[in-house]
Design brief:
Layout: H1 4-18, H2 33-39, E1 46-50, E2 53-58, E3 61-66
Antiparallel strand pairs: 1-2, 2-3
Amino acid sequence: MPEGHTLFALARDLDAAYRGTQPTATSPQGRFAAGAAVLDGRVLADVYSYGKHLFADFGGDVLHVHLGLYGNFAAGTGDPPPA
């Protein structure tokens, strides 16, 4: 189970790597396609955590992630996964 310190470190690393960039946002399973479209290509302003919650701020629109009991989070460069 991911704990708060894990999310804190993830937020710190994501912020250092992606702040000021325009990441691609997708919804490979299609469940969050509308939300991904809102964030896709926007400038990432800040990434932070609060407890077990991860937030990515795109200038007022915020992506909220909670990893639950068995969550994982992958980020990187290259082509996004197929939609």
